[in-house]
Please model this.
Amino acid sequence: MNNFMYYTPTRVIFGRDTEAEAGQTIAAEGGSRVFVVYGGGSVVRSGLLDRVTKSIEEAGLAFETFGGVKPNPTAEHAEEGRAKAEAFGADYILGVGGGSVIDTSKAIAHGVANPGVSLWEIWSKKVPLSKSTPVSAVLTIAAAGSEMSDSAVLTFVERGFKGGINTEFNRCRFAIMNPALLATVPKYQLAAGVTDIMMHTMERYFIPGISCEMTDEIAEGLLRTVVKNGRLILKDPENYDAMAEVMWCSSLSHNNLTECGRGKDFSVHKFGHALSALYDYTHGATLAAVWRAWAEYLYEDAPERFARYARKVWGTAEEDDLKAAEEGIAKTAAFFSEIGMPTSIEELGVIPSEEELDKLAELASAKKTLTLTRIKPVRYAEIREIYVNAVKKRG
Ligand code: NZQ
Ligand code: ZN
Model:
């Protein structure tokens, strides 16, 4: 087991009607002028935004709202929010929504605490982040895990770049999670969320050569739980207990618990972010579209790891490691298809041109500077090859 530091400071407030606690929790933390961020309107239609702002008012705090965050949120929009938050004199940022809203809230929090520094300067690490504004979340979709993660992902439209920064300043002070709020999430987004949760766990799991039994068992248990309950919520989004399981999996998959002693890879995310940067596809769907090609490229170099995954997560009885690994990959792809996710870029919605394949590989390799995966070195040429293998739909 490798050395590790595990620190997960977010206060989790989980369960029915917990959104009513937003105001008093912010007040207890010393917030007084709350900038409330939301997305395209689902929280307006459901009445959640009203309930949250009412709780802020009842706690005696001032607030201003800022909506319009889109999936694959842009830095340009976050800069707009940051200017409004500065003008309002915000001392606390609250995201009411999913990963896109929470990441925008984190960006606004960093911007407000660092006047005159652009979000690009922060994201490109030209200016190291040394302070931020308190930020918290009322979560409305189980997917990105931003509610407990140390990450925030933005798209810089003019630069054609989508990417994240990892910093402890990205940790939410609290995350309110009421599974009942997720009943209205569209099924495609629920399935993309299930995929993203699986991927956050698998991106930490497929690192060979390290003995890490407890962390492996947590990861495998999480994967079995999200597969089982993912099926249930797609049949019946009103199934509170199943939704609660998936929601809790979302947070635990990305608060670093499943990397303790092993570390993380996140190479599939690099492939996915490039697809979102170029075509603006839903995050979880981009991961499903490339995962099989990624796994097929690598499993022969880590057969025992893929075989263990197949046996522990999918119940494969096959004793030969290579055959078990192949079965595990096939079962994962079949699950993605079953829940309506693509298993190829074609099914995602596009057949990239040769130039677009070059561009995708350039984005995923950060202009040919990155070497991906912890299984074997995957550079620009191999990344392009994996994209090519991922294009065509298979029977
Ligand atoms: O905008 P609204 O109207 O709220 O609609 C959203 C949006 O269209 C809808 N939705 C959310 N909750 C709903 C709902 N609709 C009805 N009822 C509800 N209760 O779902 C759509 C997707 O929302 P979004 O916030 O984009 O989803 P998600 O949580 O998957 O976030 C995706 C973003 O997070 C980033 C992704 O790259 C992507 O940009 N990620 C952030 C990470 C992090 N900060 O740690 C890690 C992830 O790997 C990921 O990269
Ligand atoms: Zn993700």
Summary: The beta strands are 11-14, 33-38, 62-66, 92-97, 135-139, 151-156, 161-166, 174-177. The chain is about 50% helix and 10% strand.
